[in-house]
Write a structure and sequence with these properties.
single chain, about 110 residues, about 25% strand, alpha+beta, transferase, acyltransferase activity, transferring groups other than amino-acyl groups, GNAT_dom, 5-stranded mixed β-sheet, Aminopeptidase
């Protein structure tokens, strides 16, 4: 029997100088609410080897990541390697009035150390 495999979720860690970004975390709509996003988030946190940051759109996603220990930070608190990338988001946030939230995973909560 030839069954096709389907991707139901993905996420990645992007490397920057002195930091990493948890990004592109997506679960297909039909599979949401089953804990897949949380499992993937925890897996990526465990894989991180540098201070971990993310940006998300809206309170709902910020609440999701807060559940896993992420804390809201300001653009000024970002490491230099992320300021440029996330700075572009801040321009978009201002121009289009989008609720972009910047977050950091506290090193004191790191699960891989």
């Amino acid at each position: 029997m030839n069954k096709k495999k389907k991707t139901i979720a993905c996420g990645q860690l992007r490397n920057f100088t002195a930091a990493q970004e948890l990004g592109s975390l997506v679960v297909v709509p039909q599979q949401r609410g089953q804990g897949i996003g949380g499992y993937l988030t925890l897996h990526l946190i465990k894989q991180a080897t540098k201070p971990l940051y993310l940006e998300c759109l809206g309170e709902k996603l910020a609440d999701f990541y807060s559940h896993y220990g992420f804390e809201v930070v300001t653009w000024q608190e970002l490491p230099p390697g992320l300021k440029f990338k996330f700075g572009l988001s801040q321009v978009v946030k201002t121009v289009f009035r989008l609720p972009v939230v910047l977050m950091r995973y506290p090193e004191s909560h790191s699960v891989n150390k």
